[in-house]
Every structure is written in structure tokens, then in C-alpha cells.
Amino acid sequence: MTKFYQGVIDRDMAQVESFDRPEGRFGMAHNLSKKSLELCIVKYGRGDEISSITPTVWQWVKAQEIHARVMAAASPEHRKIKEMYEKVTLDTVYNALTMMAFAKALNFKPEELKRVIHAIGHAGEDALIDEAARALGEVGRPVAGACLYPKVYEPLLDVWRCDPPERPAKLLAFAKIWKKKIKPIYWSDSLNEAEDAYFGYWSFDVALAAIALDIPDQALRDTPYYPKDLVDAARAK
């Protein structure tokens, strides 16, 4: 599976910015970012050494930077297509939290974290992304008042904003209902083979809160989908 993913990524990365149909570049750039993130998750899920995933994380960052350039180069006639691909979707939020979790687990330096956060973008649009980005060092980032997907992420946002003594219980409560909460995301039925390719099913969003907020996670380790190896890597640094 990794060879398939890497083949698609290499193909699209080589041609996306020069693709002969400008309107086709948007979907290609979106797919490039999507596949780059999924490859990180595939490698984690199959048990690769955490440190060995570093180049794949940077590949995702590069894909995001290409995506931003493609959007910036859009002509006025493609405004609606551009807006569609720039919209903050539920997977935009999950992906942002996931890649911040990987960055922390890989012990990225402040300048490296800054590049990751810049690649994520969307400052001031979603409170959960904003709170996490600030915790990782972007202290001057504007923070939205609310998360864009409260039915999914309001309980997790509460973890970030509540008093520290309340965080362990609230994060555990969210972790226990995580599978139900995340159901609206595009890959949620992959456990039932509804997706063409299963690439992993992990609560990296929960893990990031545990890492960034230094929340004890003993109880979380018994919950399904919790990527405890990633948390261990972050805390071993």
C-alpha cells in the first residue's frame, strides 16, 4: 500500500503546478495533501519506527505548501472552485491536529513547528486548530471563538479551555465516545470496508491534547484507537 501511495504522491507532485488544465490543479493539489497525510498514518499503523516517518511528515508539509501556491495562483474565473477547496472541513481540522501530534512526537524544533503550523493555515477560523497552534508556539495567532464542527469537537475544545485539573476526566470522556463523534468524517466507515483503501483509524486529535497539555494518559491507554506509541515518543524527548 505504501508503494501505491508514494507513487500517486510522486506523480502528482511532479505535475500539479504545471498541469495543462488550470481548473484541474485544485483537485490534484487537494489529493496530494490528502494522500500525503494518509501515508503518514499508514506508516504509523503498520508499526514503523516513529522517527522514520519524519520525511513523510515533511512531504505532507511540502504538499500543503504546493496546495497554497495553487490556490494563490487561481484566476477570478475559478473563484468558486478555489473557495470549495479552501473551505475548512471536518477532515481539515482532524488533519491539522494529527500533523501537529506527529510534529510533537518527532520533537520538531520551534522553527520546524512554525513551518508545520504555517502549512496548516486557517488562522482564526477554527478554535480547536487555533488553540493547538498556540500551544505549539504560535502565541500571536488569532483564536476563533468556537470550533466549526461543535457536534464533533465541542467536548475536545472544552478540554483545551477548561481548568487543568478537569482535563484528564474530560479527555477520557471524549476518548470513550470518539468513534461515534468522528463518524461524519469521510473515512469513518473504513472499518466496514466502505472506503477503497483502509489507511488507519486513530484518535490523533485526542493524543495531541494529551501531549500538548501534558495530560496524564494512563486511563486513555485502555481506549480503542488511542495512539499511545505516538504519545510515548513525544514524552520520551
Automatic annotation (TrEMBL):
Top-rank taxon: Bacteria
Record domain PoNi C-terminal: where: 125-230
InterPro entries, sorted: PA2201-like_C (IPR028983), PoNi_C (IPR015025)
Classification via SUPFAM superfamilies: PA2201 C-terminal domain-like
Record's protein name: DUF1911 domain-containing protein
Organism from which the protein derives: Xanthomonas sacchari
Organismal lineage: Bacteria, Pseudomonadati, Pseudomonadota, Gammaproteobacteria, Lysobacterales
